[in-house]
Design brief:
- It contains 18 helices and four strands.
- It is mainly alpha-helical.
- It has two domains: about 1-15 and about 30-290, 3-Layer(aba) Sandwich (Rossmann fold); about 340-505, no CATH class.
- It has a four-stranded parallel beta sheet, with helices on both faces.
- This is Sulfotransferase family protein.
- InterPro entries: P-loop_NTPase, UCP029407.
Length: about 500
C-alpha cells in the first residue's frame, strides 16, 4: 500500500538554464510554465519536521532526488535534500553564522554580492532535486532563518509556496539537542525561540498553517486533512486513502522525550519569551491563527534581538563550556567504552585461564593414567620379551624341523620323479601288453569257438554211445581218437583257463 501512495516524479535533464530555455524562446527569456505547488515545512531542529515531511510525501508530495539517508536519530528518514542542506550551510557560513547560532541572521547579507550567486545556485539545485514535479515537499530546519531568501528562489522557479509550521515542546527539543549535540538546556531553548520567531515573522501574509508535533503523533490523518483544507493544496491524499499507511509510518515509540505542556507554560525557570511563544503556537495549532497575537510575538522578537548582544558573551562562554563538557563527556564515554572493552578482554582472559586450568587438570589425570599404563606396559614388555625369547627358541627348532622337512620333500620329489618315470615306462609296457592282450583275446575267441564245437561233438558222441550197443573197447577207442585229435590239442589251453576260472569262482 505504501508503494501505491508514492508518486513517480519525472525529472528533466540538463541545467537550469537549459530547462528554462526552449527553441521557441529568445536567449535569456523564461518560458511560461504551469504553476507548481511547494509545501514548505518550517520548524526547529528535533521538532518533527522529518515526520511531517514523511507524511506529506506519503500523501502525494514528491521528495528530493538526493535524500539524506536514515540515521539512528531518525530511523524513518529525513526527507530532505543533502544538496540543499549543504547550500544552506554555505549560506550561513558566508554570513558568519551556523545552524546552531541563536542570534538573528545578518539582515545586510541579502543586499551583499554573495546573495545573487547563492540565488542562482539554489535555483539550479532546487530544479535538479525536484524536476518538474507539480507538488513537492521542501524541508530543512535551517530555512527558518533563511525564509526570505528561499521564498525568492521559489518565486523564480514559478513555485507557489504553501507553508506548514510545526513546533514541539521546547523542553523536549532542548533535551533532544542535549543528548545528540551536547548543548545545555538553556542554549537549546534559545535556539528554539530564534527559529520559531524568525519563521513566523517571515511568513506572514503567505499561505500557511500551524501544527504541533503532538498532533502528528495523535492523529496524522487529521493533520494531513487539516493542512489540505487550510492551504487549499490539491492532490494530497488524506483520510480517504492514507489511514493505514500514515499510522504505520508514525510510531509513538520513536519519541524519546516527552514533557507535559504545563512544564513549559507554568515553569518560572523557563523564559517568559519561550513560554508565551509556545502558548501562542499551541493555540494556533489547536484553533487557528489569531492576528492579534502578532504584536506580542513582534515584541518578544524585538526584546530578544535587543538583549541578545548583552549576554552574547555569556552565551558564547556557555557554548564553549558546553563544547568542553561535550568533549569531556565524549572522552568519558570513550574511556568507559575502553574500560568495558578491557573488562570484556579480562573476562575472556579469565575464562581462558579457567579453561586452561581445567585442561591442565585433565591433562594431569591423563598423564597419571598414561604413567600407570607405561609402567604396566613395561611389565608387559618384559613378559613379552621372555615370551619372544621362548618363541625364538621354538622358532629355531621349527626352522631345523623345516630344514629336515625340506630335505624330505626334496627326496620325495626325487622319488616322485623316479616314480613318474617308472609309471611312464609301465604305461609304455602296459600299452604293449594291451596290444598282446587284445591278440590273446582274439585267440581266446577262436579257441572258444573250437571248444564249443568240441563240446558239441562230445555231447553228440555221448548221445550216440548211450543209444548204441558199442562195447567199452570201442568207446575207449573213440575217446583215444578224440584226445589225439587236433581240436582237443588246440583247445587244451582254453580248457585250462576255464578250469582256473571255475576254481576262482568256488574260492570267491
Amino acid at each position: 500500500m505504501l508503494q501505491n501512495l508514492l508518486q513517480e516524479v519525472p525529472r528533466p535533464e540538463g541545467t537550469q538554464a537549459e530547462i528554462l530555455q526552449s527553441d521557441e524562446t529568445a536567449p535569456g527569456a523564461i518560458p511560461e510554465q504551469a504553476p507548481r505547488d511547494c509545501v514548505l515545512v518550517l520548524g526547529m531542529h528535533r521538532s518533527g519536521t522529518s515526520a511531517l515531511s514523511g507524511l506529506l510525501h506519503l500523501a502525494g508530495c514528491a521528495q528530493p532526488a538526493n535524500v539524506m539517508p536514515p540515521l539512528v536519530e531518525n530511523p524513518k528518514g529525513f526527507f530532505e535534500s543533502t544538496r540543499i542542506r549543504a547550500c544552506n550551510d554555505d549560506i550561513l557560513q558566508s554570513a558568519g553564522s551556523a545552524w546552531h547560532d541563536w542570534t538573528a541572521f545578518d539582515p545586510d547579507w541579502t543586499d551583499g554580492p554573495e546573495q545573487a550567486d547563492f540565488h542562482d545556485r539554489a535555483l539550479e539545485t532546487l530544479t535538479e532535486e525536484f524536476g518538474a514535479a507539480p507538488l513537492f515537499v521542501f524541508k530543512d530546519p535551517r530555512i527558518c532563518r533563511l525564509v526570505p531568501f528561499w521564498l525568492g528562489v521559489l518565486k523564480s522557479a514559478k513555485c507557489q509556496a504553501h507553508i506548514v509550521h510545526i513546533h514541539r515542546n521546547p523542553l523536549e527539543v532542548a533535551a533532544s539537542l542535549q543528548r545528540r549535540n551536547g548543548m545545555s538546556a538553556d542554549y537549546g531553548l534559545l535556539l528554539w525561540l530564534r527559529h520559531v520567531l524568525e519563521a513566523e515573522a517571515s511568513t506572514r501574509g503567505q499561505s500557511r498553517h500551524f501544527v504541533s508535533y503532538n498532533d502528528i503523533l495523535n492523529d496524522p490523518v487529521q493533520v494531513i486533512d487539516a493542512t489540505q483544507d487550510a492551504l487549499g493544496v490539491t492532490g494530497l491524499r488524506g483520510s480517504a486513502q492514507g489511514v493505514e499507511v500514515f499510522g504505520d509510518f508514525i510510531a509513538a515509540e520513536l519519541r524519546h522525550f516527552s514533557e507535559p505542556v504545563g512544564e513549559v507554560t507554568t515553569n518560572p525557570e523557563v523564559s517568559i519569551w519561550v513560554r508565551r511563544s509556545f502558548e501562542i503556537l499551541e493555540s494556533w495549532a489547536a484553533s487557528g491563527e489569531i492576528a492579534a497575537d502578532h504584536a506580542e510575538l513582534d515584541r518578544i522578537r524585538a526584546e530578544f534581538n535587543q538583549t541578545g548582544p548583552m549576554f552574547a558573551g555569556l552565551v558564547q562562554e556557555g557554548r564553549e563550556l558546553g563544547a568542553a563538557n561535550k568533549k569531556l563527556a565524549s572522552e568519558i564515554e570513550q574511556a568507559q567504552a575502553a574500560a568495558l572493552t578491557q573488562q570484556s578482554k579480562i573476562a575472556q582472559q579469565l575464562e581462558a585461564i579457567r579453561a586452561l586450568e581445567t585442561a591442565a587438570a585433565t591433562d594431569q589425570a591423563e598423564l597419571a593414567t598414561t604413567r600407570a599404563a607405561v609402567i604396566q606396559g613395561q611389565h608387559d614388555l618384559t613378559a613379552a620379551q621372555g615370551t619372544i625369547a621362548a618363541r625364538e627358541g621354538e622358532l629355531a627348532l621349527a626352522q631345523d624341523d623345516l630344514s629336515k622337512v625340506r630335505a624330505d620333500v626334496a627326496q620325495a620329489k626325487a622319488a616322485l620323479e623316479d616314480a613318474q618315470r617308472e609309471i611312464s615306462q609301465q604305461r609304455s609296457r602296459l600299452d604293449g601288453q594291451g596290444i598282446a592282450l587284445a591278440e590273446r583275446f582274439e585267440e581266446i575267441s577262436r579257441l572258444t569257438l573250437l571248444l564249443v564245437k568240441s563240446e558239441r561233438q562230445r555231447e553228440a558222441l555221448t548221445k550216440r554211445l548211450a543209444a548204441s550197443d558199442l562195447h567199452a573197447a570201442d568207446v575207449e577207442a573213440h575217446r583215444n581218437a578224440l584226445l589225439l585229435s587236433t581240436s582237443w590239442r588246440v583247445t587244451a589251453p582254453l580248457r585250462r583257463v576255464v578250469t582256473a576260472l571255475r576254481g576262482l569262482r568256488r574260492r570267491g
